[in-house]
Structure formats: structure tokens, C-alpha cells
Amino acid sequence: MSTRPEQRAGGPAPHDATREGASPPPPVTPGSASSPGAVVRGRWRTFTGSFAQYRVLPAVAGRSYLPITFGARLPITMVPVGVLTLGEVSTGSSAIAGAAAAGAAIGEAVGAPTSGALADRLGQRRVLLVVAGLHVLALVSLLVAAASADPVALVVAAAGVGLTVPQIGPLSRVRWMAMSPRHVRTAFAFEGTADEVGFALGPAVVGITATLVGGSAPVVVAAVLVVGLVTAFALHPSADAVPVRSREERAREREERRAVATRRRREPLVFVPLVGMLAIGTFFGGSNTALTAAAADAGVPTAGGLLAAAMAVGSATTALAVVALPASLGPWRRWAGSAAVLVVGAALMLWAAPGIPLLVLTTVLAGFAVGPLLVTITDVAGRLAPEGGAGLALTLLTSGIVLGVATGSALAGQAAERVGPSAGFGVGVVAAVVLLLLVLVAAATRRPLPPPTA
């Protein structure tokens, strides 16, 4: 009696399904549903199909809303670089230009939550129209101050410009929360992408117009865009979707203020998004300052802006792709995963400096983490905002990121000056670690996040 090779070698005989009356499994062909190629194609179709969710946004808000809300934030993104450019051209002093930019940042940190709170109380349309008018007047006063070359007048005028910046991004998110809560994640992903593209285009518009026309041209362009696009955003019918609290409701709110304060002390999670945005602003400020210093040290000072743009490209790409993440991946998990990637990216930036080619790659990697972080932190803030207070909650995030940028820039500048150009990247690493630790502590509370409400 013959034996099989496996039996002669002492190994087990292979299982023969045909001897037990079972049919052999069908062969796997390249086109079958179970083949590896078909699985990959199926997953790719699922991934690309998730972007079809963006089709619902024009149906919810109207076809004109997306281009209006995107365009209306362009003049806002021109302010920081525009103030710097005008200050440098008019006074010839980088120190005065920097002071003017700092004045604009401080003004926005104060004005953003103020306009958000007023929008909650009085309605977005009324507040935006007034703020847009004041912003145009502030831009005109900035031009007058620049013409006089008076440093004090320039800084004061710049602070007025920052104070009156229309908060398009936060107020647009409030509208989405009111119009369609179930599409908030998709809407916030679009908003995050619009922010990142705007922050990349704004400085580019400033640079082009200042080079072709003159240092005051970007401010004039910003004023024209505010008149046209911010006004269109204010008058858009979507503003009516956000409920406005009546006098009786505001009186009841004043009576409940003490109870609200007590509840906030008991629920520290409401401060998590603000601290998170402060940390991500610190990462932005520290990284941008360090990138500029590293580029200057490498003999290509103009490359600093291009490196920052590389981060914006990575951020915009992943912000748009947030809709492809499974719904089961909640905000805390998205935040933790993105923060972990940011820690790696920030550490690699520190390792790669001052080599420009490697910095480009590591900066893009860090940018991949920034997009989902911005979308998710805003999502968490919207969920934790009290009813009727979403405008204040989301505009406070603007204050957080502005103050964070100022803090990170100052710290990285000192580190680069005292230790070396590469040392500034350490500020970004610390900020990324803070973001990760913050979400781990918040997630450890195991408190479920409520759905977002306007």
C-alpha cells in the first residue's frame, strides 16, 4: 500500500474534501469578489464614494453658499501678511511692522468672541453688516496711518483692523449646525478645507498685489472683497436658520449665569477645545517661525513661505478627506490619532532641520495631521457649546489659535536666536505632545459627547 509524501515524511495528510462528499471550493479568479484585486477596488470605491457626501451641502444651504462662504474669508486671511507688508513698506522697520501685526492679532483675539456673542444675541446678519462696515473703516484708517508713517498710529490702526475682522469661518459653522445637524461632519470638513486654502491663497494675493502695484494695494483689495463678499455672506438666507434668543431668553440666561458657571466648573471638558486650539496655534506659530529661520540659515530666506504653504496643502487635503473616515471613529479617537501623527511629524521636522528637501517632506506629513485636528476640535467645540451659544464658543477658538500663534512665534524666535535655527522646531514638538495628552485625559472621562446644536 502506497503512502503520500507527507505521510512518509511524518507530516499530516492533507485534508481532501472530495473524499467526504463535499464540493471543492471554487477557484479564485482575478475578477471574483473575493480576489485581492476586487477587495482593493471595492475599498477604493468606498473611499472615493464618501466624497459624494459633499453633494448634499449645496442642497442644504443653496448653490451660491459654498463659493460665498469661501470667498468671504479670503480678505480675512490677507490681514496678517497685509499688515506686515504695509508696515514694512511705509516705515522701513521690521520691528514696527511686527508690532503692527501683533496689534492686529491682539485685536482679533478680543474682537472674535465679542462678535460671536453679539451674533448669538442679535443675529448674524445685523452683526456682520455692522462689523463689515467697521472693518472697511479700519482698513482705511490703516492706509492713512501708513501714509503718515507714524508708528503709534500704525499699531493702533492695525489693532482696529484685527478687532473688526468678520468671523466668517466660525459663523458659517454655526449656520451648518442649525441647518442640518446630521451633516455637520461633512460641512465642517469643507469649512476646514476652505480655511486652509484661504490661508494659503491670502498671503499669495498679498504678495502678488504688493509686488505688482504697491504695499498699500493688498489692503485696498481686502476692503473691496469685504464690501462685496462679506456683505453677500451676511445677506445670504442661511443666516435666518440660526435661532436668535429673545429678551426673555436672555433675561433667563442672566438668572441662570451662576448655575452655568457651577456646571462649567463641574464639566471641565468645555475648555478642552479652547486649550486644544491654543496648542495647535502654538504649533503653527512655532513651526512657521522655525521654518523661516531654517530657510534663512540655508541661504534661501524666501523658502520659508513656501514651506508653510506645503503644510497648508497637506492640511487642506486631509481636512477634505475627513468624510471618508468611518462614523464609528468618534471625535476623541480622530483627535488622538491625528495628534499622534502630529507628534511624529513635528519630531521629524526637528530631526530634518535645517535641510530644506527633508523639511518639505516632514512639513507635509505634519500638515496631514493638522487638517483632521482642526475639523475635529471644531466639532468637539460645537458639541460642547451651550444651546444658543455656538457663535461665542466657535469664535473663542479663533482667539485661542491667534494667541497660540503669537505665543509659538515668540518662543520659537527666542529659541532660534539663542540656540540655533533648528531649536525653534522644539516648540512645535511640545505643542503636539500637549495636544495628544489633552485628548487622552479628556477621553479618559468616558463622557459621551452630545450632538452639535446651534
Descriptive report:
- The protein is built from 20 helices and no strands.
- The chain has 454 residues and is mostly helical.
- The chain has two domains: 186 residues, Up-down Bundle (Growth Hormone, Chain: A); 199 residues, MFS general substrate transporter like domains (Growth Hormone, Chain: A, Up-down Bundle).
- Helix 17 runs antiparallel to helix 20.
- It is globular.
- The termini are far apart.
CATH superfamily of the largest domain: MFS general substrate transporter like domains
Q: Could you say which structural class the secondary elements and strand pairing correspond to?
A: mainly alpha
Number of helices: 20
CATH topology of the largest domain: Growth Hormone, Chain: A
The radius of gyration computed from the alpha-carbon positions, rounded to a whole number of angstroms, is 26 Å
Describe the global form. globular
Question: How many individual domains?
Answer: 2
Secondary structure: number of strands: 0
Strand content: under 5%
CATH architecture of the largest domain: Up-down Bundle
Overall mean pLDDT:
82
Order of helices and strands: HHHHHHHHHHHHHHHHHHHH
Distance between the termini: 82 Å
Largest β-sheet summary:
none
Amount of helix: over 70%
| Low-pLDDT sequence parts | 1-22
CATH class of the largest domain: Mainly Alpha
